[in-house]
Hints:
The chain has 5 helices and 7 strands. It is of the alpha/beta class.
Amino acid sequence: MRVIAGTLKGRTLRVPADATFRPTTDRVKESVFNILHGLVEWSSTTVCDLFAGSGSLGIEALSRGASSAVFVESHRASLAVLTRNLAELAVTTQARVVQRAVESFLRERAARYSLVFADPPYRFENMESLIENIAGIMAPEGLAVLEHARAREVSAPSSLRIVDRRDYGTTAVTFFQPTPGAQT
């Protein structure tokens, strides 16, 4: 796995040896960031990377100029690799790692982010609740990117609308934005 573009382009990212998560492939990551290119002003973007794993998505955003990123992960081996990746790439001053279950983090609604990545396990059971709670941490003009199994249909709660969906083999990526006028 590698950083695709920006100041860290070409740098390698570590993944845990036991890899209990399914890392986003370089192909999917590159496609997602190509889509985001025209939608995001990186210098003013604050990122939240849920189910962060190795930190690949949040680190890619930092490499492209995002102002800050919060990485939420509860698995110890993934946290160790994530922390090491951030240190080796010298982006620790722009990053904050939260060791916590995503559901618990989302219930706090302590901050709002302009870009939220969520890459839950494909068998994650509470997808509807996850999507609804993501709305609570999005900035009014924010964007959320959800990676999920292609076979799994996802829908948007009234507070969000689906603005795009792309399929890549067994993986799908759905993009959400807040519904104008909706309260979260």
